[in-house]
Every structure is written in structure tokens, then in C-alpha cells.
Amino acid sequence: MSTPFERLKQSCAAEWRAYCEHEFVRQLGAGTLPMEAFQHYLKQDYLFLVHFGRAWGLAVYKSRDIGQLRQSLDSLKAIIDVELDLHVKYCGEWGISEAQLAQLEESRATLAYTRYVLETGNRGDILDLHVALAPCIVGYAEIGNWLVDQRFTVRLDNPYGAWIDMYTSKEFQQAAQAEVDWINAQMADISDKRFQELARIFSEATRLEADFWQMGLTLQN
Description:
The protein is an all-alpha fold. 80% of the residues lie in helices and 0% in strands. The mean pLDDT is 96.
């Protein structure tokens, strides 16, 4: 029997595949993605992480018990205290300074996805917010694993090898699995109507994630 999270993915199978197997991802795995496309993606991903932190701050507010509160706070601290610093350092390796990051304007794709997540969390509960964030957290873990299994993926001397390593790392995979487990537990006894509400959120967030890849591939602002 499928888990609730598997059912979410099955409810938008075409959208999920279009996101996880996007041309941006394929070129990244093959090492053929233009440097300018990856740099554009990295810049916008910095802005996304800032709003990702805001989303976990919202999750702190939306928490209903001490367990949820601690989990949300830990995620918020991980983004603000660890991941943002790591991202800034990684951007520096690609010739993007912290000063440049501070002056960036958000692309339409960044605006669309981040504001959708925040608006979903504001109008709904903490489960709505987690489901809106799941395509990012869980999707990147699945994309990393998918790339490792593809014959076209280049592991030796791939300029994007560190990116693949990041999302196939034990730490990230464990974090993604923990998110899946949490969502499965929260969705265990929901009604069909509630499932359809969450499936719509998941589908829309997945499409917006695919648009984020497209933004990077075509250098859209």
C-alpha cells in the first residue's frame, strides 16, 4: 500500500517527473550546463534560501505542540546559521561575491514559488506549509539519487559534482527522509477531501519548482 507521500507524488506524476528530470537537471548531471545558467540559478537560490528561512519561521509560529516547535526551530536555525553560510561560500567558488548576493533582484520564478509557499503557510496550517516545501526538500534528494543512477551523469571532473554530492550526502538524505516520515505521520488519518487539498498544494509547488529550473536554464529574470 502506498504511503501518503507516495500518493501525493502519484497525484501529480507528470509534474513530478517534469521537475525531477528537467533539462536543467540533465545538463547539470552531464556536466554540460552553461556556467552562466548555473550561476544564475545559484544567485536566485540564495534568495530562495532567505525566504525558506522565513517559511520555517512561520512554521515555528504555526506549531501546535512543543515537538513541532522544536522541529521548526531546528530547521530555521539550520537554514540561517548553516545553509546560508555554506551557500555564500559555494557562490564565492563560482565567482559570486556576498556583496553581489546582497544586491540581487528576485526573478519572477523566485517570487512565484517563495510567495506561494509563504501564502500557503499563512492561510493554512503547519501541514499545508510542509507539503508546499516538500518538493524542494524531498525533491532535491530524489534528484540527486536519480542523477547518480543515470548513464549520462558524469562524476569525474564534472564542474557540478559538488552539487550532486551535496544532495546525495547522508546528512541531506536523512533530512529528506525525516520530512517524508513527518508528512506520512501527519497525513495518516486525513479525509479524502483533505488529501485532495494537500495534493493540489503539492502539485502547484512542484510546478513552481520546475519553473525555477527553467529560470536557471534560460537565464530568465
